[in-house]
Structure to design on (252 residues):
């Protein structure tokens, strides 16, 4: 696949959680080299979409399809999706006591390879990525997310993304819980990792992160559907007017 081709195609996706339908026919294509923002009020289905794309077992696909790089992964396990080039930066990163970040990342890297990456080469790669992200190397020997601030948790996931180099990055409310300084630092890190071969699905409730990470397309989700798509000006309208004007437009 080359830049511009769709790395992700979601077609008429219906998803239920505990028997309740949450996504009601979501369709979205994300080409390589583009950033697509999914916006919407709380409860609109944004995080359900993120978790479903990654294959979380709690989310049951009842219709539609998920195609990654030309392969239908609708029923694939999360491990397969990860190996195929999908990455999810979750809204609430999990703490893993007793496991250092560097060992955690090494396991992820080796899981994607037929042969383990030599330790010296791996450490060199990690150090280079941390330096590029202006991260203190001591950060790597801390236990995964244990005692981390909100910004540190998000920077940890950016480091993982930088090392894994996914072809599809799903960023689920990366701005959640960040103050303005942490948001700027985290956004700068994301911008350094994004490349022309990567498609990005940026899920957010607020427009503030879009002042740092410029989207190519903005989609508005409400009640489990994408009801409007546009450019950055759509996000600007949401900032100025809130979601009510779209609710009124799409009301039956």
């Amino acid at each position: 696949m080359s830049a511009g081709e769709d790395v992700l195609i979601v077609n008429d996706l219906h998803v239920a959680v505990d028997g309740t339908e949450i996504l009601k026919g979501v369709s979205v294509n994300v080409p390589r080299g583009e950033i697509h923002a999914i916006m919407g009020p709380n409860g609109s289905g944004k995080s359900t979409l993120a978790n479903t794309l990654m294959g979380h077992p709690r989310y049951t696909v009842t219709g539609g399809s998920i195609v990654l790089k030309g392969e239908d992964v609708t029923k694939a396990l999360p491990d397969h999706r990860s190996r195929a080039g999908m990455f999810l930066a979750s809204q609430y990163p999990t703490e893993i006591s007793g496991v250092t970040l560097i060992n955690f990342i090494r396991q992820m890297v080796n899981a994607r390879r037929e042969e383990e990456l030599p330790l010296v080469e791996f450490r060199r790669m990690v150090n280079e990525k941390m330096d590029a992200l202006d991260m203190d190397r001591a950060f790597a020997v801390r236990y995964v997310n244990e005692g981390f601030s909100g910004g540190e948790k998000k920077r940890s996931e950016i480091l993982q993304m930088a090392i894994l180099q996914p072809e599809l990055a799903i960023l689920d409310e990366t701005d959640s819980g960040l103050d303005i300084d942490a948001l700027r630092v985290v956004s700068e890190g994301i911008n350094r990792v994004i490349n022309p071969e990567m498609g990005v699905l940026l899920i957010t409730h607020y427009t503030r992160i879009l002042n740092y990470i410029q989207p190519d397309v903005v989609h508005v989700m409400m009640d489990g559907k994408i009801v409007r798509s546009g450019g950055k000006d759509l996000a600007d309208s949401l900032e100025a007017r809130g979601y009510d004007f779209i609710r009124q437009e799409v009301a039956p």
